[in-house]
Amino acid sequence: MKVTDLTLREQLRLTEREIKHRQDLLDFTEADKDILVGLKPLVEAEVDTLVDDFYAAQVEIDQVARLIGDSETLARLKKHLRKYVLDLFDGEYGADYSQARLRIGLVHKRIGVTPKLYISAMRRLVTILAEHFDTNPPEDTDQCKNQINALNKIVLYDLQLVFDTYIHGLLDELARGKEEIERYAEGLEEMVAQRTQQLAELARKDGLTGLLNQRSFFEEMGRELARCQRTGESLSLIYFDLDGFKQVNDAQGHKRGDEILIATAEIIGTTIRAEDVAARYGGDEFCIILPRASEEVAQVFVRRLISEAESKLAGTGVTFSVGIATAEPDVPVQPSELVKKADFAMYVSKETPGFSVTVATDDMPIPGNEADQQATENANEGVAKSNI
Questions:
Q1: 264: left (phi over 0), alpha (psi -120 to 50) or beta
Q2: Residue 310 and residue 304: Cα distance in Å, rounded?
Q3: Separation of CA 361 from chain center
């Protein structure tokens, strides 16, 4: 059920039983009700004077005068106060009366009347009413005291209800503020998570080409090699660099060099499968991981890559030297070892001008290993070489 479907009294759970309990706590009895009802003819005869006297005193308070603002508002307030004063002596102090008091509190809260101003105003109203009783004293002095006592009790009851609405309003504002803060925090957390993800993604990629950088490449290589061993499938690594790139970069400028690097990344993007991993290894060197790809599959892939490059890089003077190294699931290999094999094969390809491809064999030496130094001197014997 919506809040707007409930009355203010229902929202505050002010039942008939609660109303009676509150009045009992103030010792507001049937006798008090009778006393107030007996005063109503006297009050009705002088109510307009009472209201005028009340507001004549109120507008002398700067804060109150600013809240009232103009004569039309003052006239409306006098009309409402007139009704309130008459209701005080009506003798009906149940659900409808209580609901009206709650509404008074809510209105005063909304227009910015502070509790101190409201209490001050009620004290002034009671004083004016008491003075009126004194000017028309009954023969029995005790009866006058009983009249003022009964008035004080019902006014205190009214103050309880008014301040219930003040407290209810403050709690409602706190609840709404909390909800807004929670929504803001959730939105902020989501935004931070998105930004963090974006930053993490940017940290993984090369700023120019959008391909993975070298660090991320090795992370992916480690995962893919581990998967290769688990699934019993081959993995191939394509390692190539751009022949003639330095000459173009030096002669035509770095901007032209950047354009060629970006074009190379686009060539890779149009060639690789969704599961393949491409990286700019450094400078003008690129690597492509081909999961679930045998040596034969890798060679077919390289032919497509070179065909695309011949079209897109035609007239630039730039070609590819390509090395292929394949890891088999039954022969564990470290990422760095596979990269060295493919790199070594790529350098062998450089001996042949144009687009050239070399496939590393299992027994080829790994540069940098002391045991392979002698074999490195005869490197061509450890590679299978082909031109495409």
A1: alpha
A2: 10
A3: 54
340 within 8 A of 367, measured Cβ to Cβ: yes
**What tens digit of pLDDT does each residue of 372-381 get?**
444 334 434 4
Tokens read off for 116: 């101190």
Of the candidates 147, 164, 126, 167, the one whose C-alpha atom is nearest the C-alpha of residue 19 is 164
Looking from the CA of 87 toward its CB, the CA atoms found within 13 Å total: 18
Q: What percent of the chain has pLDDT over 70?
A: 89
Higher-confidence position of 38 and 10: 38
pTM: 0.51
Sequence ranges of the domains in the chain: 3-181, 214-387
Tally the residues of the chain. Answer: 388
Query: What span, in angstroms and rounded, lies between the C-alpha atoms of 1 and 21?
Result: 27
User: Which residues are CB-neighbours of 177 under 8 A, at least 6 positions away?
Assistant: none
Residues 52-111: pLDDT tens digits? Answer: 999 999 999 998 899 888 999 899 999 999 999 999 999 999 999 999 888 888 888 888
Classify the C-alpha dihedral 65-66-72-78 as positive or negative. Answer: negative
Q: Do 98 and 9 form a contact (C-beta atoms < 8 A)?
A: yes
**Going by C-beta distance under 8 Å and a sequence separation of 6 or more, which residues neighbour residue 387?**
352, 354, 355, 356, 357
CATH topology for the 3-181 domain: Globin-like (1.10.490)
Cα 298 to Cα 112, 292, 358, 360, 387, distances in angstroms = 78, 10, 11, 12, 14
Correct CATH for 214-387 of 2.60.120.10, 3.30.780.10, 3.40.605.10, 3.30.70.270: 3.30.70.270
**C-beta of residue 115 within 8 angstroms of C-beta of residue 169:** no
